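Handout, tutorial session.
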Amino acid sequence: MFAALLHARKVLSLQPECVRFDISRTAAMLEQNQGSQRANAFLISFCKKALPRLELVAKKYECAGINSNVSATVFGGHFDTRLMQYLASRMVNMVARYNRLPDMSRADIDLLAADIANFIRAELAEHDDADSDLGELATLHGWYMRAGLMALQFGVTPPHWAGLTTKYFDQDKAAPAIMRMFSDVWWRGRLRRVAASWREHLQIAIGNVSKKKHAYASKNCVTDWREQKRRTREFLKGLELEDEDGNRISLIEKYDGSVANPAIRRCELMTRIRGFENICNELGYVGEFYTLTAPSKYHATTKAGYRNGKWNGASPSDTQTYLTSLWARIRAKLHREEIRIFGIRVAEPHHDGTPHWHMLMFMLPEDVERVRNIIRDYAWEEDRHELRSDKAKKARFHAEAIDPEKGSATGYVAKYISKNIDGYALDGETDDESGELLKESAPAVSAWAARWHIRQFQFIGGAPVTVYRELRRLADTDTAHGLSVEFAAVHDAADAGDWAGYVNAQGGAFVRRDDLQVRTLYEPRTGFNQYGEETVCIRGVYDSAVGAGTPILTRLKQWKIVPKRAVDLAVDVKGAPAPSRSSVNNCTGSESDPPELDLSKPLSRSERRKLTARLRDKKRVTRRDFVHGTDKQSAAIDRTIDEIQLTTGETISRGEALHLIAGGKSCINGKWCRGSSTGEIFPAAPSHRAQARQILNRVAGLAAKQHRDDI
């Protein structure tokens, strides 16, 4: 047992801090309450049962080393020069830091993102001159492949990777993709997302996301989600929208009045599904309620809350991908069978975070049995050997006919919509999965969807909701009626909130996008985004029969986001010379600009108090103690100065040498040099700003030339 305990402690020490902290705290509590023997048994059991699960998660995220294709592309397959050895050491350092993502703070993640972006920029700049003799398309292709392979090294799929590497290589897509891959802002978002998913996946692996601990999402995940919502609101409160005339409106008020508001989002979803039900009744269709669940290997925890031995390490995102591909094959089969259905799909989590789908579908009565059989066959196809009992088959796929005598079709999904948004009108109701109150579990479900980027609601069939929203913005009824009778019918239905009337006026529940009566008008913006891409914005709507040349604009003003104007704050106290508009002083003093005091005459009691308070608030300026370098650093500085003298003929100061041994680089006598901690000097590419400017100019030049050729 002693050897097993030592092994367990060694294994635990190698796990991320977010895992070690939780396990160590549990062991400490067991030791305090039940003795050391019970705590040791817990550690041994953890090593035996949880370690294989943690290894499954690690395989999905960790980098085992430098990939062979990166080694061949970046280093040429050899490390026999000091420069190649230095670049390899940088790459190894970044890989090691990447493997610590679950424990890294936001600041550390941002530093890693900047280092990766700088490394890619340097590589592109190094090979810029080497590729100058190639054609423009070949140059862009080489840059994209080189940057893309380095992105794959860190578990990030390059933009448009599947299309640009297996299909036609489009310059218009490749150039912005390259610019993204040497942008630290782009890398920052990708690495933050990987770190958050990795942490939550580890919590699922050790059982912290279950009905026995925290259902749907871990405690830290919900806390992070709440904090992000708070930060977003505080950020929006400090901003305003300003038009061309200088008129301003509050950004937070517009945010609360949009579908970003959970209450408005829920009402719109209920309106749309109620409209679908009305169309179903008009057409003589019937409703069916389906539930799709993934096979056992996608579930980390059993229904009772214990570890599932069949789990393959899949994340909720992996399970959502499986369900999406499953539904794609089902839709293709229904299309081949010429069966038409429409409705809504709701994705929600099991208690361990594994998603499952609820679907409300409307179809012809004679198609009900065929649709059930098709969905059942595809749902049972994977791991069919598990379905030995009726209970197991029902868990994988369950169909229930909508009985109008028991309730409307909208009533079937109303609970699921409310549960997955804000828990509205669910006071006192408990969750079947976790046993908690639905009102209290709603934030955990929202945090789960945000963490794994899962689309919770999706409508199948019908007309686009974007046109519906734009028509509701249009208050000029006379203009709508003057365009065409068909356009007026679509507008009137949308303006009245009649989703069924809107869908029917657009062409019905099965209308093709090319056959819509009213469509959205998009126009390109005047400028490009930071990646050199042309962006488009919605300007209005138009009648397809009349043509896009005669649109109705719903967005007449161009708004931009600006900071709020600073409010003039004054300091005043009762009895001061400045008059107050009220009987008491309600103003908060400005610490940065205190009122001036006339010291040429005796101070009053209130003025003395203000002066004393000001003196006490003055922070004493402290100077950091100077930290002398070690003998090793001094030797490295001396060696750096000598190396620079031999290489460039210039003598640099010790401060410049210190900058070089810290990993910096400088241009000395026209030569770019990079130092190391041992005092060695290597030739280096120009600074990252110069590299970025050079690459940006060349990418922009290639894009401009391509645009001229197209014209």
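The second record follows below. Compare its token runs with those of the first.
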Amino acid sequence: EQGTHYVDVTGEVPWVREMIAKYHDAARKKGVMVVHCAGQICTIDDLSLYLLAQKLGPLKQFREYFASSGDMTGGTYDTNIATFKDMTQDRLQVMRDPFSLGGKRRGGVRPED
């Protein structure tokens, strides 16, 4: 409402989807940038890809292989418990859909692929 950019570290896909549905149009009209999932594991990928594209120019493809070890923090554990307590069929579908936050591709292989 105030035209302030917003950055959040959440990784809760159903909540992010709800925020997009609720605020996307208004944020776009005001020129507000909203960044969800900042600081998640994908941040390393995003920054690496951005820097590669700046150095090498447009890339046809980016493929990464990633391995991780470790355990959940208490906050992540609590979030997962709360997410499953509030689970509905609609929220489950959002979690299963790899395009739920960014929209569907228009179809087929594109020239840049």
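Points raised in discussion: DSSP finds four helices and two strands in the chain.
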